[in-house]
From TrEMBL:
PANTHER family: L-ASPARAGINASE (PTHR10188), N(4)-(BETA-N-ACETYLGLUCOSAMINYL)-L-ASPARAGINASE (PTHR10188:SF6). This is N(4)-(Beta-N-acetylglucosaminyl)-L-asparaginase. The record marks 150-151 as: Cleavage. Pfam families: Asparaginase_2.
Length: 321
C-alpha cells in the first residue's frame, strides 16, 4: 500500500520530511505523528507550539495537544498542560486509556509527571520578550490583546493502511488562563478514520469550534468526494455561513489526506502547509482562497522561505514581533 503525510504550516517540514522517509520503509503512522510533532514542539523559534510557545495573559504557557488512531478511534488529549516537554506524547499515551483519556490543567500536568514524561520550563526568553512587546502595543494603541494561534496538525498514512492524526498548540496568544481552543477537540480540530481518511485544522479556535469541520471533511471523503473537493466545500461554506450569521469569520485552514494518499487543503487566508507521499517528495506549499470557492496552491519560493527564516530567527535584541 501507499503512504503519505500532510501537515499545517511550514514549521512541520523537517518532521514530515524525516518521518515520510520512515513511512517509505514501512514505519508506523502513529510513531510518525508523534515524532514529527515532537520536532516542532522542541524547536524554540516556532512561537505557537511547545517550547518557546506563546504565553497567556499571565505570561504562563498552557499547551494543548491531541492524538487519534484511525483504526480504532482511540483519542487522547490534553489541554492547559504546563511544564511538560512534549504534550503530543502525553496525548498519545492517554489514547490507550479506557477512561480519563482527556485531561486538563493541573490534572494533565500531574499525569505527565507521574507517568515519567520529561518536565521542563517551556517559556523562553524570546517568548517573554514577545509577551512584553504585546503588552506595550496593547497599552499604547488600545489594541485587542489576542494575536497568534497557529496549531501544528498532521495526518499520516502508513503502508499497512493505518491512519493517525495529531495536533499541538500553545493556543491563542495572551489568552485568558484556562482558555482552550479547537485543537484538542475531536471532530473540530481533528478527526481520522483509516477506512476513509483524516483532517486537521488550524486558526482561530473560537470560530473553528463552532463547526465540526474536520469530521465533516472526513465524512464527505467517505461519500466519495476527493480530498480537495471535500475540504473546499467544508471550509468555504462554513466561512460564508459565519459571515452571514455573525458578520465575520476568523482565520482558519484545514488539511486532509485520504486512505489512498491523496491530499487536499482549503483556507480563508494565505497559509503554508507541508505534504509528502509515495509519489511526491516533502514540499512546502502556500495556499490561498481562489475563485468560486476553490483553493489556489503553489510551491513556496526560495524568497518566501528565506524571509520566513529571517523573521522567526530575528535576534532577541532586535525583536519587534
Amino acid at each position: 500500500m501507499t503512504y503519505g503525510m500532510i501537515a499545517t504550516w511550514r514549521m512541520a517540514y523537517e518532521g514530515v520530511a524525516k518521518m515520510a522517509r520512515e513511512l517509505a520503509k514501512g514505519g508506523d503512522a502513529g510513531q510518525s505523528i508523534v515524532e514529527a510533532i515532537k520536532m516542532v514542539e522542541d524547536y524554540p523559534y516556532y512561537k505557537s507550539v511547545g517550547f518557546g510557545g506563546l504565553p497567556n495573559e499571565d505570561c504562563q504557557l498552557e499547551l494543548d495537544a491531541a492524538y487519534m488512531d484511525g483504526d480504532n478511534f482511540d483519542v487522547g488529549a490534553v489541554a492547559g498542560i504546563q511544564q511538560t516537554k512534549n504534550p503530543i506524547a502525553v496525548a498519545e499515551r492517554l489514547s490507550h486509556e479506557r477512561f480519563n483519556s482527556f485531561l486538563v490543567g493541573s490534572g494533565a500536568t500531574k499525569y505527565a509527571r507521574e507517568q515519567g514524561f520529561e518536565q521542563q520550563e517551556m517559556i523562553t526568553d524570546r517568548a517573554k520578550r514577545m509577551w512584553e512587546l504585546r503588552l506595550e502595543e496593547i497599552q499604547k494603541n488600545n489594541l485587542s490583546p489576542y494575536d497568534g494561534h497557529d496549531t501544528v496538525g498532521m495526518v499520516s498514512l502508513d503502508r499497512r493502511g493505518k491512519m493517525v492524526v495529531g495536533t499541538s498548540s500553545s493556543g491563542l496568544f495572551m489568552k485568558k488562563s484556562g482558555r482552550v481552543g479547537d485543537s484538542p477537540l475531536s471532530g473540530s480540530g481533528f478527526y481520522v478514520d483509516s477506512e476513509i481518511g483524516g483532517a486537521t485544522a488550524t486558526g482561530l479556535g473560537e470560530d473553528l469550534m463552532k463547526g465540526c469541520l474536520s469530521y465533516e471533511t472526513v465524512a464527505l471523503m467517505g461519500q466519495g468526494l476527493s480530498p480537495q473537493k471535500a475540504v473546499d466545500q467544508v471550509v468555504y461554506r462554513f466561512n460564508d455561513k459565519l459571515i452571514k450569521r455573525k458578520g465575520k469569520a476568523g482565520a482558519f485552514s484545514l488539511v486532509c489526506l485520504n486512505n489512498r494518499g491523496q491530499w487536499g487543503i482549503a483556507t480563508n487566508v494565505e497559509f503554508s502547509f507541508v505534504a509528502a507521499t509515495e509519489t511526491e517528495k516533502a514540499e512546502i506549499y502556500l495556499a490561498r482562497p481562489g475563485k468560486n470557492q476553490t483553493t489556489e496552491i503553489e510551491v513556496a519560493t526560495a524568497e518566501w522561505l528565506k524571509a520566513y527564516d529571517l523573521r522567526i530567527k530575528q535576534p532577541l535584541e532586535k525583536l519587534t514581533r
